[in-house]
Design goal:
Layout (H helix, E strand, L loop, with lengths): L1 H9 L11 H10 L1 H17 L5 H18 L22 H4 L3 E4 L1 H14 L7 E5 L5 H15 L5 E6 L11 H12 L4 H16 L2 E5 L12 H4 L1 H7 L4 E5 L1 H7 L11 H4 L8 E6 L12 H8 L10 E6 L3
Parallel strand pairs: 1-7, 2-3, 2-5, 3-4, 5-6
Antiparallel strand pairs: 6-7
Helix pairs in contact: 3-7, 3-9, 4-7, 8-9
Length: about 325
């Protein structure tokens, strides 16, 4: 449907670049200002003291920002039916109570991989993390904060972002959303928020942050056929040391949106899609989930029949060599 809307619009200058979802996406950003300020302030506090953090403190901060990026995925206009989906509370204050809602937690694998890359990296070599984006607005801010931390902590030397080429599932991020958000953050009258925006703009200018888009992300294919349908994109992803797939739609395409048994291993459900070590960071909004322990899903089915579709639960699901 969204592709049909776009096809109609692009044949009608001067509205050929019109995003029917722009107003809702922008509103999400503005209504989340307090949370964004809190998150940017926290990031700047961490960055200014990062050289003084020992390895365990660095790991704890990495886990904290990963969880913020996960729960930022709740801010989804397609889930809310267009109603407000902004983040109006400081999510950092809720992480401990939200932790039991993470059904699969492979954050340790992510830390081991990136920390090992950091320790073994030569002076001229790079560590590349790719982030396949989901929603704009508050969730995109959480992704950019995480990306900033990865560079500041030297867990990565460059970050590559992937967004949609056209307006897609309501709040999905496009290049316009990416650039607009950074400009808004930079133009804030709050000093730490503004500092974040200025830093992010610099990362782009010097090539440490790179934005890509590709039509494949808005085609109906599951990701296991990417190497045949979009070999250029697959080859690009193969350059990453780690790929983070944000959100529910990416999870559905990773697993082929099939009715898998809950205990089927994530690796099996990917059906040969292994361009690089990867992790799905997702709150559950669709009836597909793999990689659970025997009996785990049945517990939720008995107590919460709609547990798979409300966005209440989340996963960090990793696939790659350990």
């Amino acid at each position: 449907m969204y592709r049909r809307i776009h096809e109609a619009v692009i044949q009608s200058p001067p509205i050929d670049d019109f995003d029917v979802f722009k107003e809702s996406k922008d509103q999400n950003f503005f209504e989340s200002q307090e949370s964004i300020i809190a998150l940017c302030t926290h990031l700047q506090e961490v960055v200014t003291t990062i050289r003084d953090l020992d390895e365990n403190q660095l790991k704890d901060e990495f886990f904290r920002l990963l969880q913020i990026s996960l729960w930022g995925n709740k801010c989804d206009l397609s889930l809310s039916g267009g109603e407000t989906s902004s983040q109006k509370t400081n999510i950092m204050n809720s992480l401990e109570e939200l932790k039991p809602l993470i059904l699969v937690n492979d954050m340790e694998h992510l830390w081991s991989l990136l920390n090992n890359c950091k320790k073994t990296r030569g002076k001229a070599s790079i560590t590349r993390v790719d982030i396949v984006l989901d929603n704009s607005g508050f969730e995109l801010v959480t992704d950019l904060v995480l990306a900033d931390f990865l560079l500041s902590a030297q867990l990565a030397t460059e970050i590559h972002f992937y967004g949609k080429t056209i307006p897609w599932f309501v709040s999905d991020a496009t290049i316009r959303d990416f650039n607009w958000l950074i400009e808004q953050v930079k133009g804030s009258n709050h000093k730490w928020m503004s500092k974040c925006g200025a830093d992010w703009e610099t990362y782009i200018k010097v090539g440490r942050w790179v934005y890509h888009d590709h039509i494949f992300w808005t085609l109906p294919h599951e990701f296991c056929v990417m190497s045949q349908v979009a070999p250029d994109l697959y080859a690009e992803l193969q350059k990453a040391h780690l790929i983070l797939f944000k959100g529910d739609l990416n999870y559905r395409k990773l697993t082929g949106d099939r009715k898998w048994e809950f205990t089927v291993p994530f690796h099996q459900a990917l059906r040969g899609f292994h361009p690089a070590p990867l992790c799905s960071i997702r709150t559950l909004k669709a009836e597909v989930q793999v990689g659970l322990w025997p009996g785990q899903a049945e517990q939720y089915i008995a107590s919460e029949p709609s547990w798979m579709t409300t966005g209440k639960y989340g996963v960090f699901q990793f696939d790659g060599p350990l």
